[in-house]
Amino acid sequence: KSLSQENAISLIHDENIYDVLASHWRWDHAGTDSDPICEWFSTWYQIDSQLFQNFVLQFLPEILWSFLLKQSHGVPLSGVESLLICIHNRSNYDSFGKPRKFSIPSTQVPSVLHNTSKEEQPETEVGGTSIGS
Question: Residue 60 burial by CB count (10 A; 0-12/13-18/19+): exposed, middle or buried?
Answer without folding.
Answer: middle
